Amino acid sequence: MDYFSGRIFSVTKIIWLIIFLMIMNTVKSSTPEDPIKCSSSSSSSSSGVLKKKSNCTITNFIGAFPDRTTCRAAEAFYPTTEAELVSTVAYATLAKKKVKVVTRHSHSLTKLVCPDGDEGLVISTKYLDRVLNVNASAMTMTVESGMMLRQLIEEAAKANMALPSSPYWWGLTVGGMLGTGAPGSSLWGLGSQVHDYVIQLRIVSPAGPGEGYAKVRTLENGNPELDAAKVSLGVLGVISQVTLKLQPLFKRSVTYVTKSDSDIGDQAVRFGREHEFGDITWYPSQKQVIYRIDNRVDSSNTSGNGLYDFLGYRSLPSLVLLTIRTNEETREALEDINGKCIDGRLISTTFRTAAYGLTNDGILFTGYPVVGYQNRIQALGTCLDSPEDLRITTCPWDPRVKGIFYQVTTFSVALSQVKSFIADIQKLVTLEPKSLCGLDLYSGIFMRYVTTSSAFLGKQEDSIEFDFTYYRSKDPLQIAMFKYNGLPHWGKNRNVAFIGAINKFENADKFLKIKQIYDPLGLFSSKWTDQVLGLNKDGLSIMKEGCALEGLCICSEDVHCAPKKGYFCRPGKVYGKARVCAKQY
Ligand SMILES: Cc1cc2nc3c(=O)[nH]c(=O)nc-3n(C[C@H](O)[C@H](O)[C@H](O)COP(=O)(O)OP(=O)(O)OC[C@H]3O[C@@H](n4cnc5c(N)ncnc54)[C@H](O)[C@@H]3O)c2cc1C
Ligand SMILES: *[C@@H]1O[C@H](CO)[C@@H](O)[C@H](O)[C@H]1NC(C)=O
Ligand SMILES: *[C@@H]1O[C@H](CO)[C@@H](O)[C@H](O)[C@H]1NC(C)=O
Ligand SMILES: *[C@@H]1O[C@H](CO)[C@@H](O)[C@H](O)[C@H]1NC(C)=O
After folding, report:
1. What is the spatial distance between Cα 460 and Cα 224, in angstroms, rounded to a whole number?
2. Does 32 reside within a domain?
3. Ligand 1 pocket check: which of 58, 145, 169, 410 to mutate, most ligand atoms within 8 Å of Cβ?
4. Which one of the ligands is nearest to 301 CA?
5. Which residue of 13, 71, 357, 489 could cross-link 58, Cys pair, CB 3.0 to 4.6 Å?
6. Inside any domain, residue 422
7. Which ligand is nearest to the CA of 118?
8. What's the CA angle centered on 450, arms 519 and 140, to 5 degrees?
9. Could you give phi then psi for residue 301, rounded to 5 degrees?
10. Is 398 contained in some domain?
């Protein structure tokens, strides 16, 4: 017992140190690595100008796909103009090579960026990041698809405009947010998904010899092909340019309020209807909910120059990351659930004390509400700012240091089903009160609002998107997907979330018809995208030892769990049709 309390005490100290460093944030981080690494680099292709490299591997921001494989490509191209993009697609089409687009940081966890086999090619959009047109009277902006959200927000603000809602992490690109249908949080207006603000885009796809093997299409609002292209998983070709409908720059007012979770089922939907940018963080094992009350305010008569710099997206010293990781691994190994619960409470208390990284003037937090311009609050990610410092500090998930490594499950549940789904999570917690403590270490269950989209692979109904981040899978995925018809986030999740998912999209067939027209040879498709789109029936589940713990299968035998570590395949306790790995003592 002494041993335990002693250890917990020292862990507490370490966590306070981490938090202190996060809040001080005096340290600068290292630039994330390019997700494409090539062993040879030749500066030009046949055209003589286009930058090209060969013999490459591709990975994502965290350095690992769910199945732990590495992806390869024979060549990587770095076009700097749409014309170069067209010649790259033409080259691939003529040679019948598999192709994928890779963005600057490759933030999707799913295997969307891997071309099939070793002989394919990848097209990096990292040099396609310019503003092409700003129209203040029409309130539109046209940008190249490789532009990061951060730059999009900055450029819009310079013209006194704002994208009303977006993901919270600014390292994502315009092409990538469209590729996966990434949202922020809002039920109001056009909602929270960036693709619902697209009024025009240009896309480069394969073509026949008569058209020079590549074709550029301009898709306008109202064209059903735009509904296919604005959430495309990258299988229709390369999006070159995107025009977004913006709004006059506005201010918003943010207040975090902590309450008991007893009525969360009743509150969740109402809260989203009441507050334009609200979101909810739920710590079920602590019986606590943090409501983010977040509304647009009149910027002419409401003062404030607040800034949001979320603690979790700041850089941390590698040494601290190592400590956090080692601590969690030890807790896992010792099955120290109480320890996890204590760490979790400490972390959530600290985030609350530090106002989650909000300041009223960019320096100090003096109290709620924090009022500030949209561009200073909607998205963040200072850990990307970075002179190289030998990785003494870096983003918390940098795969080059042994740091935080996590799994994510993200799905949306229709508003009409939210109350019952939440009740099921509450039942799970009642059965095993500490089972969800692991979530607290990664900001609980994060709930955001998304709206019905005309995109064929977009949301089918107004919904709440639930984010579960954890070290080891302990999430109600099967309840959400199979009992409540949940839809997966295309860029997050592990394999099991996609089983049968495509059948829940009413217009999936329309999407596939357009795919057939745009890319009849399936050059932009891969085994993974075919599986996800239901074109390749088997393979999403990888049945092997331990697969259910890895999120690669739904267990049907104990061996799919880890019987040696005491995990056996059992029916779910709340949803009897689920098959989950349960600890047997
Ligand atoms: C720290 C962090 C925070 C995050 N926060 C959020 C959040 O708040 N909300 C949310 O929804 N998601 C979030 N995500 C997940 C992320 O939004 C998605 O995975 C996102 O789509 C990735 O964007 P990316 O630019 O990195 O694209 P990638 O992951 O590189 O690409 C995604 C897909 O789009 C395709 N693609 C990219 N560009 C093009 C193009 N020009 N033409 C055709 N296809 C293209 C790619 O080939 C790939 O298939 C977060 C991820 C991280 C790591
Ligand atoms: C390709 O790169 C790998 C390392 O990633 C190396 O082992 C191999 O020799 C390289 N092949 C060629 C043809 O350069
Ligand atoms: C801005 O948009 C309006 C309306 O669509 C259009 O008439 C005008 O030509 C555009 N201006 C620029 C500079 O593109
Ligand atoms: C700001 O102005 C709006 C109308 O323009 C008014 O409704 C609101 O009450 C004003 N707020 C304050 C704090 O004066």
Report:
1. 16
2. no
3. 169
4. 4
5. 71
6. no
7. 2
8. 65
9. -120, 15
10. no
pLDDT in tens, 127-183: 999 999 999 999 999 999 999 999 999 999 999 999 999 999 999 999 999 999 999
**pLDDT of amino acid 4:** 34
Q: How many CA atoms, within 13 angstroms, populate the side-chain half-sphere of residue 123?
A: 33
Measured in angstroms, how far is the CA atom of residue 304 from the centroid of ligand 4?
Answer: 15
The mean per-residue pLDDT over the stretch 351-377 comes to 93
- The residue whose C-alpha atom lies closest to atom 14 belonging to ligand 4 is 301
Distances (CA, A) of 425 to 284, 335, 419, 428, 573: 8, 22, 10, 5, 11
Q: Is 55 helix (H, G, I), strand (E, B) or coil?
A: strand
Interval between CA 366 and ligand 4 midpoint (Å): 23
**Ligand with the closest atom to the CA of 71:** 2
| DSSP reduced 3-state for 134 | strand
Q: Which of 248, 267, 293 is the last residue of a domain?
A: 248
CA distance 294 to 255: 6
From the CA of 102, how far away is ligand 1's center (Å)? 10
Pairing verdict, β 99-102 and 121-124: parallel
pLDDT tens column, 201-223? 999 999 999 999 999 999 999 99
Instruction: Quote the CA–CA distance of 85 and 528 in Å, as a whole number.
Output: 24
Instruction: Using most ligand atoms within 8 A of CB, pick from 133, 134, 135 the residue to mutate for ligand 3.
Output: 135
**CATH number reported for the structural domain that contains residue 176 in this entry:** 3.30.465.10
User: Last residue of a domain, which of 217, 248, 279?
Assistant: 248
CA 180 – ligand 1 centroid, Å: 6
Residues within a 6 A CB radius of ligand 4: 298, 301
Buried b (16+ CB within 10 A) or exposed e, 570-579: bebebbeebb
The residues near 71 (Cβ < 8 Å, ≥ 6 apart) are 57, 58, 59, 65, 111, 113, 114, 115
Q: Tell me the CA–centroid distance for residue 266 and ligand 1, in Å.
A: 32
Residue corresponding to tokens 């040099």: 127
Ligand 2 atom at shortest distance from the alpha carbon of 54: 14
Q: Phi and psi dihedrals of 581, rounded to 5? A: -85, 115
Q: Which atom of ligand 1 is nearest to the CA of 239?
A: 42
Nearest ligand to the CA of 251 is 4
- CB under 8 Å to 350, separation ≥6 — which residues? 15, 16, 19
* Ligand 1 site, CB within 6 A: 61, 100-101, 103, 105-108, 112-113, 125, 145, 167-169, 172-173, 175-177, 179-180, 182-183, 233-234, 238-239, 489, 491-492
How many other CB atoms are there within 10 angstroms of residue 518's CB atom? 22
Total number of domains in the chain: 2
* Contact call for residues 437 and 285 (beta carbons, < 8 A): yes
**Helices 318-333 & 337-353 angle (0-180, nearest 10):** 140
Identify the CA nearest to 394 among candidates 325, 319, 479: 319
How many residues are given for the chain? 585
Pocket residues for ligand 3 (CB within 6 Å)?
Answer: 133, 135, 137-138
Q: Which atom of ligand 4 is nearest to the CA of 302?
A: 13
Q: How far is the CA of 526 from the centre of ligand 2 (A)?
A: 23
Q: How far, rounded to the nearest angstrom, does the alpha carbon of residue 26 sit from its chain's CA centroid?
A: 27
Question: Does residue 232 surpass a pLDDT of 70?
Answer: yes
Q: What is the mean pLDDT of the chain?
A: 88
Query: Does some domain include residue 392?
Result: no
